[in-house]
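Per reviewer request, we include the raw input and output of the structure prediction for the construct analysed in the revised manuscript.
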Amino acid sequence: MFGQIIRIILFLAVGLLAGWLGSKIVRGKGFGLVGNLVVGIIGAFIGGYVFRGIGLHAESLVGELIAATVGAIIVLFVVRVLKSA
């Protein structure tokens, strides 16, 4: 059970960092702490799906961060396109 709690905390930390990194890469002002966390978590799922779709699998914390950041960039791009429409 303790291992699962640590895994959830790491997932949230990666999501938060990925959301923040994504907002910096896309050159947005970000969505604040909670918004970046949400974008990062959604991005983690999307990034993982995209990476698996092209045959890649993140096996380390750095790999997970890269996948989540790519996913966050995709989410931020979609949000930006929808806001401008």
